[in-house]
UniProtKB/TrEMBL annotation:
HTH rpiR-type domain mapped to chain residues: 1-76
A Pfam family this chain is assigned to: SIS
Descriptive protein name: DNA-binding MurR/RpiR family transcriptional regulator
Organism from which the protein derives: Paenibacillus tundrae
GO terms for MF: DNA binding
Limits of the SIS domain: 125-266
Length: 288
């Protein structure tokens, strides 16, 4: 989760931390010019209280805190698209206008998603996937299409991904997972009772899992080993289609695959190249 969001939600903040957060959100124009001592004085708190807050936000100290805030303030002041994620086009628009608005929606969704990205979280998640014996994905509907795309990419680097929910065999897959495996939940609202039940089982059995969701405060998200958030722009029922959510899921899974690939870049490149060579040789032999 980005820093501004954590400051606004104030989850598990002490009264002093709430005062600091409120001051920062109300004085965005000049707070970046303040030293830690000046911020402590302005908020009637202390140097140590600010330092503890930065650590609670997952940062190493005040310097990283101000750098991260500056980046997020810049992103938050950029023009917001007027494309409605639920109804991105109207009935009277030309086909070219529809094309332009879908392009704008894709661009804005990814831009928002980038703001939620965290370097350490992505690195830890990628290493979890890399070290797992098996990867199981829980996804339904359109999200399962995104899961299959990720599965197909992973095949190319000898990471064999199972779509646990593909043939309604999720119960059997769930029971067979071990602590050497990992799972991914791809769920926009994160409210499925079945998923929560599976997550509770994983916690009991020390099986790590990742949740990619727009609802980072759901029970499923809180149970997760790692939670990656996507923009929460779509209404559950009032929408033309699952445009924004699926753009976000595709983007996050592409990022995870790329981070996974990067861990053993040369090995994965060699694996892909050798597979293609063997395939070409086999085709040539068939023609003889």
């Amino acid at each position: 989760m980005n820093i501004l969001m954590q400051l606004s939600e104030m989850q598990n903040f002490t009264p002093n931390e709430q005062s600091i957060a409120s001051y920062i959100l109300k004085h965005k124009e000049h707070v970046l010019q303040l030293s830690i001592q000046e911020l402590a004085k302005a908020t009637y708190t202390s140097h140590s209280a600010i330092h503890r807050l930065t650590q609670k936000l997952g940062l190493t100290g005040f310097k990283e805190f101000t750098i991260t805030l500056a980046r997020e303030f810049q992103q938050s002041t950029q023009p917001i698209s007027n494309v409605n994620p639920n109804y991105p086009f109207g009935s009277g628009e030309s086909s070219l206008q529809v094309a332009q608005e879908i392009a704008e929606l894709m661009k804005e969704t990814i831009k928002k998603n980038v703001a939620y990205m965290d370097d350490e979280l992505l690195s830890q998640t990628a290493h979890l996937l890399n070290n797992a014996n098996r990867i199981f994905i829980y996804a339904q509907g359109d999200s399962q299409i995104r899961a299959k795309s990720f599965q197909n990419k992973c095949f190319k680097i000898n990471k064999y991904v199972v779509i646990a929910t593909e043939l309604s065999e999720w119960i059997h897959h769930t029971i067979n997972l071990t602590s050497e495996d990992c799972a991914i939940f791809l769920t926009y609202h994160g409210i499925s009772p079945n998923y929560v039940q599976v997550a509770q089982h994983f916690n009991r059995e020390n099986i790590p899992f990742i949740t990619i969701t727009a609802s980072n405060q759901s029970e499923l998200a809180k149970l997760s080993t790692y939670c990656i958030r996507v923009p929460n722009d779509e209404e559950k029922l009032a929408k033309i289609g699952t445009f924004s959510s699926q753009i976000a899921f595709e983007y996050v899974l592409n990022v995870l695959y790329s981070c996974l690939y990067k861990i053993e870049y040369l090995k994965n490149m060699h694996t892909t190249t050798e597979s293609l060579k063997k395939f070409q040789i086999n085709n040539l032999m068939k023609d003889i």
